[in-house]
Structures are given as structure tokens and as C-alpha cells.
Amino acid sequence: MYLGGIAIGKAYLGSDLVYSSVGGDTPVLPYDAEIEYLQSTGTQYIDTGISMSTSLKTEMKAQYTSTSDRTSMALIGAFDTGTTFAVPVGLQGNGGKLYVQIGSGYALSNATQSSLHTFTSWVSGNAMYLDVDGITVSQSGISSFSTRPLYLFARNNAGTAGNIASAKMYYCKLWSGTTLVFDAIPVRVGTTGYMYDRVSGQLFGNSGTDSFTLGNDK
Fold this sequence. Notes:
Jelly Rolls, eleven-stranded antiparallel sheet, eight-stranded mixed sheet, 23 strands, 0% helix, 56% strand, globular
């Protein structure tokens, strides 16, 4: 690794060593192992630091582990009083349907809620779309979006976590237009779980209580 014409021996991200020339030019990653999934038991969530917008596209592979009768359980979302809130991927209570939400309006998918799915959501015009394994639904009525950052495993309710999901997450990607801005995979440091963003090189940890359940090492 070089800065201009000067060879760099070590590089740090904060206090974490992310590169060392010792033993070759292989970057030192800030985690011990990639894992199959990160699982919230209903009290753990992650702040992505990225806000919803008309140009944002989401893709994730995830599976709900509880479909109990709750108001809703969001895999990703944000809300502010007085503005339109968005839940690109969620599970509605009362029997359970996968949904995309704009304000108080839902578009429901008939996909099996407790199965492993690949979810994609995006905005076009005044509608938000949700594709679940190739089947697409949409909900119209967008006026504006909250500027609050999106939470994973939950909905950011004006700065606090609500509708926290019991679910496993295998990866999550966010695009702004055609630019990939968040490419997160589940990892562990010791026995603590994180989502590692390969775009920023940062670990995103639990902002809730208790601890994530970890899948097996890959």
C-alpha cells in the first residue's frame, strides 16, 4: 500500500489495525470470522447511519424466526412525526404478511413469512416497491421521508427503536442510485456479533439490549 510514492507499513481505522505489510499485502480485517447470519431475538438492532430517500434501493437476505401476533416487525425502517415514514421490509401482525409500508398504507406480499427470502425494495414515482423472491408489490402515497437513519431489525421511531424483529439476517446492501453505499455481512469478534460494511470498512454493532445470536462460522 502506498501514499503517493511512500510505502505504508500499517494503517488504522480509529484504533483498529486494518492493514499491515508484515507477511505480505493482505489487509487485516477487524473481525475474527464471517458467520452465516446475525439473529435478533427481538431486542437487538443496528443503526445503519443511512437515511431513506427516493434514490435508495435495498437488498437483503433474511428470515423471520417469530411470526407472533404483533403490530409489526420491521427488518429495516425509519419514522418521524409529521413526515412520511417508510418500512421497506416488514412483517405485519394478525396472522403475518410480509409488507412494504408508506405512511399508514401497506402493500402485502403473500410470500411465506417464516421462510428464508431475498428482499429488494426501491422507490419509483410516488410509490415504494417490494420484491420477495421475484414477486413484486407496491404502495403509493410518498410525500416525504424521515431524515432519521434506517435501523436494521427495527424501525427508527423518531430516534428510538420500535417494531424490533425476531429474525436472521444473512446480508444487507443499500444503494444510492447506482452507487453501493452499504454492503454488510454478519461477522463476529470473539463471541460478539456485528454487521461488517465492506464499503466503509466499519463494524456495526448492537444498539439494543442483550446480545445477537450468531450463526456458524463460514
